[in-house]
Amino acid sequence: MRYNERELLSLARQPAEKAAEVLMRLPKKGSVLKKRLVKLVVNFLFYFRTDEAEPIGALLLEQCRIIKEEENVFSISFVEEPERKYCFECDSEEQCQEWIEALKRASYEFMRRSLIFYRNEIQKMTGKDPLEQYGISEEARFQLETRKQ
């Protein structure tokens, strides 16, 4: 994926939907758990050394799996690279579950599915397509419909 480093750094400085210090293990062989500040901004999970303002890495939360591994541990792996797994150890099971839910809601795919669901619910209740009032073309609506699966 291409990205503009300056824009990514600017995004990392935005207010976070969720942030905390957790233990993190990178997918590198022999990697150990290290305390990191993790910060969720839109659909990026930035991670920082606890004493630095610039992120040392970022994960784009698209086409990924977020799995609870143990009581306080969850992992993020990517569909196209399942062996590339990042592990996160939280202070409590509750914190772990909060992170899992927040990360799953962060992807554009989740937002798209939610949009389709609510659009269909509004249409059932009113008999009108709510997108019509915004001038969204038939072609665009068709694309939304065909990608439901």
Structural write-up:
It is a single chain. The chain folds into 2 domains: 102 residues, Roll (PH-domain like); 30 residues. With 149 residues, the chain is α+β, with helices and mostly antiparallel strands. The radius of gyration is 18 Å and the shape is elongated. The protein contains 4 helices and 7 strands, in the order αβββββββααα. It has a 7-stranded antiparallel β-sheet with strand order 4-3-2-1-7-6-5, with helices on one face. Helix content is 33%, strand content 32%. It comes from Nycticryphes semicollaris.
| Largest beta-sheet details | 7 strands, antiparallel
Overall residue-averaged pLDDT value: 86
Strand fraction: 25-35%
The largest sheet has its strands arranged as: 4-3-2-1-7-6-5
* Radius of gyration (Å): 18 Å
Q: Considering the protein shown, what is the CATH homologous superfamily of the largest domain?
A: Pleckstrin-homology domain (PH domain)/Phosphotyrosine-binding domain (PTB)
Oligomeric assembly: single chain
> Can you tell me the CATH topology of the largest domain?
PH-domain like
Query: From the 3D coordinates, which CATH architecture of the largest domain would you assign?
Result: Roll
**Structural class assignment:** alpha+beta
In whole angstroms, how far apart are the ends? 24 Å
Order of helices and strands: HEEEEEEEHHH
Q: Number of folding domains?
A: 2
CATH class group of the largest domain: Mainly Beta
Number of helices: 4
Low-confidence stretches: none
The beta-strand count equals 7
Shape, per Cα inertia axes = elongated
